[in-house]
Amino acid sequence: MSTIVNEAGIALMAILLVATLPIVTLASLVRLLHSILSNPGDRGGAIAQEVKILVRRTFTAVAVVVALGCVWGYWKDAQRRADCEPDARDSEHSPDGSYLARYCYFRNTIVLRLYDKEGKRLLAERTYRDTSGLPVSLYWKEHALMYAEEQELGGISLPPTFLDRATAQLP
């Protein structure tokens, strides 16, 4: 998987948004004309009602397209995480030996997984982009596992939070 696929997903989301909004606007204008022509005495009320409907439909269309974009991104990341084969992983134990971190490289994307000390139970997982081209550097602190994510440090708290443990079980 490459950044081209992710950029294509973002472009597809923008195209859907640009194509959907004129359709919603046109449908609302047709409905407005129908309301005005069928009840010519109450134009102000018809216009106010149709504007409310237009705003509601626009927000709904934007929300649906953004949700589809988020689902696309999650699906592509899930595919990338599934491609992380055991022989393609690097691993590193915590200094006290209570955790095991494994990570895979996919060009500029890194999948980082935190396991228990035996490496059998997945506790937390991160998929992040790093275009620096440098190898993964993990920094084990007393209550956190830190990793370089572009110019900043990302982290997983130790022990992992309930949310980390729950999301690690998702595909």
Please provide a written account of the structure.
This protein has 3 helices and 7 strands. It is α+β, with helices and mostly antiparallel strands. It has 2 domains: 3-82; 86-168, Thrombin, subunit H (Beta Barrel), CATH 2.40.10. Strands 1-2-3-4 form a 4-stranded antiparallel sheet. Helix 1 packs antiparallel against helix 2 (43-82).
Give the low-pLDDT segments.
none
Distance between the terminal alpha carbons, to the nearest Å? Answer: 16 Å
Tally of discrete structural domains: 2
- Specify the overall morphology: elongated
The averaged pLDDT comes out at: 77
Helix content: 40-55%
The CATH architecture term of the largest domain is Beta Barrel
The total count of strands amounts to 7
* CATH T-level topology of the largest domain: Thrombin, subunit H
Largest sheet: 4 strands, antiparallel
**CATH class categorisation of the largest domain:** Mainly Beta
- Output the radius of gyration: 24 Å
The secondary-structure element order is HHEEEEEEEH
Strand content: 25-35%
Transmembrane segments: 12-33, 54-75
Keywords: Membrane, Transmembrane, Transmembrane helix
Features:
171 residues, three-stranded antiparallel sheet, Thrombin, subunit H, 2 domains, alpha+beta, 49% helix, four-stranded antiparallel sheet
Task: Give the SSE layout.
Elements: H1 3-38, H2 43-82, E1 90-93, E2 99-106, E3 109-116, E4 122-129, E5 138-140, E6 144-149, E7 152-157, H3 162-168
Helix pairs in contact: 1-2
Transmembrane segments: 12-33, 54-75
Keywords: Membrane, Transmembrane, Transmembrane helix
